[in-house]
Amino acid sequence: MARTLITGGLVITASDELYADVLVDGGRVVGLATHDGHAWTADHVIDATGKYVIPGGVDGHTHMEMPFGGTYASDTFETGTRAAAWGGTTTIVDFAIQPRGGSLGEGLDAWHEKADGRCAIDYAFHMIMSDVNESSLREMDGLVSAGVTSFKLFTAYPGVFLSDDGQILRAMQRAGSNGGLIMAHAENGLAIDVLVEQALARGERDPRHHGEVRKALLEAEATHRVIKLSQVAGSPLYVVHVSAREALAELARARDEGLPVFGETCPQYLFLSTDNLAEPDFEGAKYVCSTPLRPKEHQEALWRGLRTNDLQVVSTDHCPFCFKGQKEMGLGDFSKIPNGMPGVENRMDLLHQAVVDGHITRRRWIEIACAAPARMFGLYPKKGTIAPGADADIVVYDPAAQQTISAETHHMNVDYSAYEGKRVTGRVETVLSRGVPVIAGRAYVGRAGHGAYVPRGLGQYTN
Question: I want to staple 98 with a disulfide (CB 3.0 to 4.6 A). Which of 107, 230, 302, 304 is the partner?
Fold first, then answer.
């Protein structure tokens, strides 16, 4: 494998910013040194003068080819990981789904089959537990040993994914003993279903009502409940896609008590709002996801949570459905709109824009997008940093380039962009995955099958 030298750039990790050259050999970072402090030679030299040299992004929450409501997420592992690479993400952690009545192993095998030989970048799996019973609880230990070290449970979607409090407690107890991490989708699905039924009976059928029935208080209530269950079980908890300031307040309170409770949010909650859900002519359907978009005033609370580390991670919850033919399934009934939005390609750029806008620092950008998810999900320091021994997942990033986000130019397999027309500063220029170019000079040079499955260790939880 060729030796590559990345020279002249500003290396940014979660802990440091330094002008240094980076030497890559055998797919790993083997050295960092000041520009005049070495005599390294290499087969390939990448001039990063005036650019940032950052770790590849780690997106800890994606749903490629996920079945939902009679259809499937429109990105395959091939198209979705290629789009991720275009956006500077070099590792995804996707969700394998236990079939109702089936085993965790069956679900994991099915997802391996979807992904094997098709990914442009490295990938790992979480496991969605949709049927918590004695058998699946026993299976958890084996999955942890095999490198699937996190399990997602839902207080939402009755009849599909919902687990009751007793099932959630049992899974948390098992994770407490085997070192796994319980992830929770926290919304009160039973109460939401009542509000959906009542809204439809009143003739409230437009996409904006999706946000109105999935109330912030019901996200906060479920967040409080899973925190208390995790406290009883004595296990860590990671709450996915936190969207409401009331839910964030529950997390902050638990963390102030010293509990090992963690939270992620997503770009859609930081940059979009119920104004988008209310767009006329059914355009609001493009923005239907769960947890839903909130009124704009929630955004500042989420940014503050990212600055104070009450939220540790920004993932995408990338789960795209085309407007034509998929989102349109809910014409005349918002409850039938597939829940999910595209974003795997946009996350790193949007968060860099947040640096430009003064919401976060450059190092915090790398922390929430690369290092913290790698630590949380047992991938660090192989992923999420630039240091000797780390995988050479490296992005050369142009902080001055201007771009306009658009479905015309994105690479996700979906017919709209959630951020159509948004101007951002900063753009990916070159992407290495384990030292191999995937994006070079704004061209895709990767291939399906380069991406490898990465078994994960236990999370390195840090407060």
Answer: 107
461: confidence class by pLDDT, cuts 50, 70, 90: confident
Report the side by side order of strands in the sheet with 394-404.
17-19, 10-12, 52-55, 394-404, 423-433, 436-440, 443-444
pLDDT value of position 85: 99
* d(C-alpha 25, C-alpha 462), whole Å: 31
The per-residue pLDDT of the chain, averaged, comes to 97
Calculate what percentage of the chain has a pLDDT beyond 70.
100
- 172 phi/psi in degrees, rounded to 5: -65, -40
Give the integer Cα–Cα distance in Å for 456 and 351.
Answer: 25
**pLDDT for the residue numbered 2:** 87
The pLDDT assigned to 462 comes to 53
Q: Return the pLDDT at 262.
A: 98
pLDDT score recorded for residue 145: 95
- The string of pLDDT tens digits covering residues 269-311 is 999 999 999 999 999 999 999 999 999 999 999 999 999 999 9
Per residue, what are the HEC states of the chain?
CCCEEEECCEEECCCCEEECEEEEECCEEEEEECCCCCCCCCCEEEECCCCEEEECEEEEEECCCCEECCEECCCCHHHHHHHHHHCCEEEEEEEEECCCCCCHHHHHHHHHHHHCCCCCCEEEEEEECCCCCHHHHHHHHHHHHCCCCEEEEECCCCCCCECCHHHHHHHHHHHHHHCCEEEEECCCHHHHHHHHHHHHHCCCCCCHHHHHHCCHHHHHHHHHHHHHHHHHHCCCEEECCCCCHHHHHHHHHHHHCCCCEEEEECHHHHHCCHHHHCCCCCHHHHHCCCCCCCCCHHHHHHHHHHHHCCCCEECCCECCCCCCCCHHHHCCCHHHCCCCECCCCCHHHHHHHHHHCCCCCHHHHHHHHHHHHHHHCCCCCCCCCCCCCCECCEEEEEEEEEEECCCCCCCCCCCCCCCCCCEEEEEEEEEEECCEEEEECCEECCCCCCCCECCCCCCCCCC
Long-range pairs for 142-145: beta carbons < 8 A, 24 or more residues apart: 142/105, 143/104, 143/105, 143/108, 143/180, 144/178, 144/179, 144/180, 144/458
Q: Is residue 55 pLDDT above 70, yes or no?
A: yes
